[in-house]
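note to self — DONT lose this again. spent like an hour looking for the file last time. sequence + predicted structure for the chain T wanted, 148 res
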Amino acid sequence: MADYPPALGELISFFESLPEGERRDNLIDFAAAAESCAPHQGEKFDLEDIRHDAECTDTVGVHARLEHGDHVHFAISLGPRVQTLTKALTTILCRGLNGCPLAQVLAVPQDFIPRIIGADLVRLRSQTVYYVLGRMKQAAKALSEPPA
């Protein structure tokens, strides 16, 4: 798990250890916890990118701020029609990437997603399973670039 931030590596190991039925049950539990990743009232961010892209069923907002130099804190706001799997990945990514240096977020490979959700779900949801990670990486890239 050397390629992944420690918290994300732990989540990958956890999901890989589960039989298929338990994996899906845990994904549903993580989806139910997606609200815990939303921005809190009055919370300040260096970047807020809220939009509805074709890859997702509803609006997704990526909120990010730098802490302790180059470490990033993410919050994600989700519209009411965002699908369960996207909500689950939102929770996993927030837990796995919050507090990481920007460079580490940008270097996270996408290959872990099938390891968490299973190959069958990746095939069914090929575009949406990578959506939130892509948006978070875009935010990290924007934060890492010096202002013009």
